[in-house]
Amino acid sequence: MYRFPFFLAAALIFALAETPARATPGELPLPTLSPAKTRDSILRSADGLIGTPYVFGGESAKGIDCSGFVFLVFRQATGHAVPRTVDTLGKWVLMIPRKELKAGDLVFFELDKPAAQKKTSAAFSPSAADHVGIYAGDGQFLHAASAGTRTGVIRNSLSEPAWSKRFLFAGRIVSASPLSGLAFEAGLLGILDAEALLGDSTPALALRGGGISLALSLPVLSNFSLGLRSRVEWDDLLGTLRLPLELVLGQNTGFSIFLGPALTLGDPGLPASTSEPARGYAAPASWIASAGIRWSAPMIRSGASGAGLFSELRFNRYLPLPGLSEDLASDRRATISLGIGLRFRSTRY
Length: 349
Known about the structure:
Layout: E1 3-5, H1 6-18, H2 35-47, E2 59-60, E3 63-64, H3 66-78, H4 86-92, E4 94-96, E5 106-109, E6 131-137, E7 140-145, E8 152-157, H5 161-164, E9 167-172, E10 183-193, H6 195-198, E11 204-221, E12 224-235, E13 240-251, E14 254-260, E15 262-265, E16 269-270, E17 279-282, E18 290-296, E19 300-302, E20 305-316, E21 319-320, H7 328-335, E22 336-347
Antiparallel strand pairs: 1-11, 2-3, 4-9, 5-6, 5-9, 6-7, 7-8, 10-11, 10-22, 11-12, 12-13, 13-14, 13-15, 14-18, 16-17, 17-21, 18-20, 19-20, 20-22
């Protein structure tokens, strides 16, 4: 059984717990119970600002710039505060193909590019964007223009040569359909003996097994979802292969809880030690055979996918075999474990 110093494990858990859950304004796309109504609200808010004069740095009906226009519209229509500048907004949105644009999505441009310049490569950096607007459907978009024959909040067409040549990419913030936000997640984890944290044993954690998991979840609120997760885990300490099926409820980044039934293959038992005899357990059938709490760190995202660390404290329901004397420390060691792993998550946009 591999062992490593307790302070390393404690440092990792502390780092996960201290990582802020609000590294971004929420996982994208932002879920909504009625995407069509939310997008209509975005367009009504945007239309209501037509004619507002352009003011650099402005974000009110008295004067507004292009990113301030997007910021104000989304705050009014969704209650969410999106990134304030074109650069941060372009790096944050979920990039989508132009052909998938829906009313309420964002369109980004590179105004410094001459209108006559032809695209030489499909590759670009979001940092090249220096202008943003809100797509209104039918090839139209609303934006706060700073130069030209008309300035302030106006409507233009993506087919106009001046804008077609300078178009850079499209971005999504709000769900496009009720199933937008459906997420698939896979995880790899190491299972640790948590007795060092919960009991009076030597301050070291032992790797007692490992596992892989698969999960599906649907958004309920921003950064909050409901889902099902199944996994296969090998516990070398108890000599079992366990297959739980868990209901998961909580934050996509932050805390979540899980519980459900589990199938246990093998005869669970703690091996004999110099001070204790071998101790056997039964794994009774139960609707709550596995439960716990998980902390998921913010993910490194690329479009609709991402990866990040997680840690979890898990309780597996095992009962001492009849005739065994009471031994709370051993029973705690058998039923409680600590997991630390890596998750891969992909969201349907």
